[in-house]
Specification:
This protein has 11 helices and no strands. It is mainly alpha-helical and about 210 residues long. Helix 6 crosses helix 7. It starts with a helix and ends in a 5-residue tail after the last helix.
């Protein structure tokens, strides 16, 4: 029946959305498939029917998230109609907001890159030189040359990614050391969306 087909599709999506929430709350190690089934409002047998293991479900979610993020970033860095300043604003905002919603993503990417970088790029449909060959890299290098700066485009880009991602990865550390409540941490991250682009543009001596 059509209803059954629609139900099957919606169940798969329901499971993936539930898994995202549970993985983010508990992390991969502490998550049980039973937790995901309960979050999705289904029985464990049905979850196992669609996804044979927690690892398989985690991999599917992470690869979809990686592909979504890389596609979005690629659209930003190859847009010939935006200035370098606009690209920095959009890139930082995307990194911080995207990783905040999926804090396990960077660790997953780095572990996959360590194991088999080419396989990860192939699976998500991205070329291994998509950053270096991007229009944004060209704009960065032009600004570096214009101002006579003594660093490379890749140094700048690594700063952009690190400044955006580390506060998300370091959330437990920051909350513990600085005794941040959840609301304080949220405000801290919102401030970084504003501050990080200012610091990066200052590094490039960029006149907006």
């Amino acid at each position: 029946m059509n209803m059954e087909k629609e139900g099957n599709i919606s169940t798969e999506e329901k499971i993936k959305e539930a898994a995202k929430r549970v993985f983010q709350q508990k992390g991969y190690g502490l998550t049980r498939t039973r937790d995901i089934a309960e979050e999705a409002g289904i029985n464990l047998a049905l979850l196992n029917y669609y996804y044979r293991s927690k690892k398989k479900l985690f991999d599917i979610i992470m690869h979809e998230s990686v592909k979504e993020m890389l596609t979005y970033i690629e659209n930003i860095i190859n847009n010939k109609n935006t200035t370098l300043s606009e690209k920095i604003d959009a890139g930082v905002n995307r990194y911080i907001e995207g990783i905040s919603k999926n804090p396990h993503l960077p660790i997953f990417i780095f572990s996959e890159l360590q194991a088999n970088p080419q396989q990860l790029f192939d699976r998500v449909g991205a070329s291994d030189g998509f950053l270096k060959e991007s229009y944004m890299f060209k704009q960065i290098q032009e600004q570096i040359d214009k101002k006579g700066l003594k660093f490379s485009s890749i140094q700048f880009f690594i700063n952009m990614v690190s400044l955006s991602i580390f506060p998300i990865l370091g959330q437990p550390f920051l909350k513990n050391v600085y005794k941040m409540e959840d609301k304080e941490y949220v405000n801290f991250i919102k401030d970084r969306i504003i501050l990080v682009p200012i610091w990066l543009k200052s590094m490039l001596k960029l006149d907006e």
